[in-house]
From TrEMBL:
Identification of the protein by name: DEAD/DEAH box helicase
InterPro entries, per the entry: DEXDc_RapA, Helicase_ATP-bd, Helicase_C-like, P-loop_NTPase, SNF2-like_sf, SNF2/RAD54-like_C, SNF2_N
Lineage of source species: Bacteria, Pseudomonadati, Pseudomonadota, Alphaproteobacteria, Rhodobacterales
GO MF, any single term: ATP binding
Organism: Gemmobacter fulvus
Keywords assigned by UniProt, alphabetized: ATP-binding, Helicase, Hydrolase, Nucleotide-binding, Plasmid
CDD domains reported in the protein's UniProt record: DEXDc_RapA (cd18011), SF2_C_SNF (cd18793)
């Protein structure tokens, strides 16, 4: 958080290892920005599976309400939102999936006409430019680039920030601050170090801090001989030659159909049979490549695969044997299983067979595979239920759509890889669902290794070596990307496919991985810049800009609970009638119980919330208990217990909420307090015995904004007019201490308001003069800091223009005698020059707008109260 807040414009890549709490880090930064008035409008972009979990974490831990724009919400709103209406104007703080932004034209178009204080992109590696990027990946990258330009602050969260290339890393840095990347192929840590936080599980500070909190995981390989029926099918695949593969022009094993078949049979006969039948039908109806000879070979193979029935499916039989050895019967609520498989057909087959073979009820086995139209809603429901103690779910069977970010560890410490992924990164991501911060039992991870009598089949078994390299990464290698040299799941799959297709065998494949790792270590030792760029970013944060050692602004009430108690007691009076039921206040327990008042309920005309539900600006609908009741407390241990208890109840969201300065109910209190007195008026009270006789104190609040309207100077003060007419300024801390205003303060009615009224104009005038003096004093420091920022931008711009000359040459004196190629190069150069001009003009203008104060000779001042001695 210190690294983020030290920046003028908060832009940070949080790239900590899997399971180390990136969402919590983002929440801490967001809540601090919100308290500083710099995060009124927030957009979170995440995966479909993560919508509810992210929303819940931000609410329960940080009191940040996010409106969840999932497919169900968008469907409800679809017919009620006019075509020209921007949906993001309705929601200041929202969360949406990247897939929704890709698919929904109306939502995507709204992005271009919206602006936020803060955008958070979760699983940001999905939006990075990758060597293997195509189709949806490149579309995600375009969306992320657009979002990066529509916000002041930006947080990118990912455990895999690059694919081993500087270009992929540079694409994320460019989203954060494009002025830092004149050449994407030549990044330097000294240019970007303040933009990145990255720690591995082997990082010393992580070992010290997290090692005590996360039990060490246990890996259990399950070796078994494959059946005769499987031997036949596997050998046929190992020896299969297809005309369509011979015609493949891309030259990569991953693109061969034989590789696709091998990947499918490694998952299950059901997945393999589905793959074969789809291709056979495609060949027959002319929609897929392949000759008649290919069709016949595939048909023969399909017959062999069909012969692998449940009894002959040795891996499945080994799974049943594993469960018998664990004495697992599905009765314990805290002994649940997560089973991962890459193929949806395998997920579906397992769900059906396990229900029958383990004698489980239909609702005890759930699946998450993204195969339905509204997969986001169904996935959120299943994941939430899996974490609840009272839920009947005992086995969750998931495809890799559930491998990123999700918390599956609340009631589960056993994970089974029914098929091993062809990617080390994917293997780590899967394991991270239960091997993560908050796990209270040693994670137990099982995987299967089949053994064959045929040499060609044995040469295909290389995946176990990925597990060994994951263990090496856990033990201290750090970045696991060094073993396969790809850095993203798709690239790693291509490397593994080459090893399987070539038949080099497991030992040779392991040697290749060790050689890559050794080369990376050598490069790091020889190239300090390489080591610095792709290594640990756990350097101490720079000093906070404007950091001070005081305890913040003075407070009339000693804490938020006392203030909330006073406000609720006032709002409970008959003349206010704010609550439908009398609130309960329990000082000994530091607990407040209220029923949501009418003006906190939704009047949504766009179909997002049901009529009468709580307004999403205050809290998510799921956070409200039965009857519209909520509980508030300032005791962190009570909140932590409530979050834990919610997992054992039918409700997944705790109704007890953390009462602190960041809770939205304080905004509601402020709105209601503004109605206590008529507009353009202020209270007048007697403070006899607390002020000197004849002394008048005028409490004022004033601010001087920047060009964006955000306050740069924000001041409360007491203007004290003495009986002789002199006016002096007194800071609020001194005034509150001198008058003991926080104590019970009896006030006598004032019959004569002459002195009070006379003190106001002169106090306001003197306070405005003081604000102008403050502005002038601050302007010198601000201008000095601004000049330093602009000098830095100018130096960066010089590097951009120098790089442009290196790439495209100098601008010619004349273009009369230029060749077509030279003219094309000149056109590209001029376009690039315009882009550089716009980039640095935009960033310069942003700093000037946010740093410079409005030079108003009469700053706006509010009279808050008048006290007479």
């Amino acid at each position: 958080m210190e690294r983020a807040l030290a920046q003028d414009r908060v832009r940070l890549l949080i790239a900590d290892d899997v399971g180390l709490g990136k969402t919590l880090e983002a929440g801490l930064i967001t809540s601090e920005l919100a308290l500083r008035g710099r995060a009124d409008r927030i957009l979170v972009v995440t995966t479909r599976a993560m919508l509810t979990q992210f929303q819940k974490e931000f609410w329960t831990r940080f009191s940040i309400p996010l409106s969840r724009l999932d497919s169900a919400a968008i469907r409800r709103m679809r017919n009620k939102i006019p075509a020209h209406y921007n949906v993001f104007d309705q929601f200041d703080r929202s969360i949406v999936s990247i897939d929704t932004l890709k698919r929904d034209n109306q939502i995507r178009d709204a992005l271009k006409h919206s602006y936020w204080d803060l955008i958070i992109i979760d699983e940001a590696h999905n939006a990075a430019e990758r060597k293997s990027a195509a189709g949806s990946n490149s579309q995600r990258a375009e969306l992320a680039q657009l979002l990066s330009r529509r916000t002041d602050s930006l947080l990118l969260l990912t455990a895999t920030p690059h694919d081993g290339s500087q270009e992929s890393f540079a694409s994320l840095i460019t989203m954060l601050d494009p002025t830092r990347v004149p050449d994407p192929t030549r990044l330097h840590r000294s240019d970007i170090g303040d933009l990145v936080v990255r720690r591995f599980r082997s990082s010393p500070e992580v070992v010290v801090d997290i090692g005590r909190e996360v039990p060490k995981r246990e890996l259990f390989p399950r070796r078994f001989p494959i059946s005769p029926e499987e031997e036949v099918a596997y050998q046929s695949i190992a020896e299969l030659h297809l005309d369509l593969d011979a015609q493949e022009t891309r030259g990569r094993a991953i693109d061969l159909f034989r590789t696709t078949i091998a990947k499918a049979i490694f998952s299950s006969p059901a997945a393999c049979h589905e793959t074969l039948e789809r291709r056979i039908r495609g060949i027959e109806n002319g929609t897929a490549r392949g000759t008649e000879a290919d069709r016949d070979r595939l048909r023969a193979l399909a017959d062999q695969v069909v012969a692998i029935d449940t009894a002959a499916f040795s891996k499945y039989q080994e799974l049943l044997q594993l469960l018998r050895q664990l004495r697992w019967n599905g009765k314990s609520t805290r002994d649940r299983l997560v089973i991962f498989s890459e193929r949806i057909a395998t997920v579906a087959w397992l769900a059906e067979r396990l229900r029958e073979d383990l004698n489980l009820a239909p609702d005890q086995v759930a699946r998450v595979d993204g195969g339905s139209v509204e997969a986001d809603v169904r996935t959120q429901e299943v994941i939430e239920a899996f974490g609840q103690e009272r839920s009947p779910i005992r086995i969750l069977i998931a495809s890799d759509m559930a491998s990123e970010g999700l918390n599956l560890h609340f009631q589960c410490h056993r994970l089974i890889h029914f098929d091993l992924p062809w990617s080390l990164l994917r293997f780590q991501q899967r394991n991270g669902r239960i091997d993560r911060y908050g796990q209270d039992r040693p994670p137990q991870i099982s995987y299967f290794v089949g053994e064959s009598a045929h040499p060609k089949v044995r040469q295909m078994w290389v995946l176990e070596k990925l597990v060994a390299k994951d263990e090496a990464a856990q033990a201290g290698v750090g970045d696991p990307a060094v073993f396969l040299g790809a850095g993203d799941a798709e690239g790693e799959e291509a490397v593994v496919a080459e090893a399987i297709a070539s038949g080099i065998g497991a030992e040779a494949f392991e040697r290749q991985m060790d050689e890559r790792a050794a080369d990376a270590v050598t490069q790091m030792s020889l190239d300090d810049e390489f080591a610095a760029l792709f290594g640990d970013y756990a350097d101490p944060a720079p000093a906070l800009i404007g950091a001070s050692t005081d305890d913040g602004p003075p407070r009339l009430f000693k804490d938020t609970f006392t203030y909330a108690t006073a406000m609720i007691e006032r709002l409970s009076r008959p003349e206010e009638n704010a609550f439908p039921e009398m609130p309960g206040i329990f000082p000994a327990d530091r607990l407040i119980r209220i029923t949501i008042p009418a003006d906190m309920r939704s009047r949504d005309g766009f179909g997002y919330a049901s009529e009468g539900a709580v307004d999403g600006r205050f809290m998510p609908e799921e956070a409200v208990g039965p009857g519209g009741r909520i509980e508030l407390t300032d005791q962190a241990r009570v909140i932590n217990q409530a979050i834990s208890d919610a997992k054992a109840q039918e409700r997944a969201w705790p109704t007890v909420q953390f009462l602190w300065d960041g809770h939205p109910i304080l905004d509601w209190f402020a709105d209601r307090a503004s109605t206590f007195f008529p507009e353009h008026s202020a209270p007048v009270a007697s403070l006899v015995g607390r002020l000197l006789p004849g002394e008048v104190a005028v409490i004022l609040h004033g601010a001087i904004p920047n060009a964006n309207g955000a306050p740069v100077v924000d001041l409360w003060a007491a203007m004290i007019r003495s009986p002789d007419g002199m006016v002096r300024i007194e800071d609020m801390g001194t005034f509150l201490a001198r008058t003991r205003l926080a104590e019970d303060t009896p006030s006598r009615p004032l019959e004569d308001l002459t002195a009070a009224m006379a003190a106001i104009p002169i106090s306001v005038d003197r306070f405005q003069t003081h604000l102008v003096e403050l502005r002038r004093a601050r302007e010198t420091d601000i201008q000095r800091d601004l000049e330093a920022v602009l000098d830095r931008l100018a130096a960066l711009e010089t590097r951009f223009r120098a790089q442009l000359t290196l790439d495209l040459g100098d601008v010619p004196v004349s273009d009369v005698s230029m060749s077509p190629v030279e003219k094309r190069r000149l056109t590209i150069r001029r376009k690039r020059e315009q882009e550089i001009d716009k980039l640095f003009n935009d960033w310069t203008e942003w700093f000037e707008r946010t740093r410079k104060m409005v030079a108003d000779p009469n700053p706006h001042v509010d009279v808050k109260a008048v006290f007479v001695g």
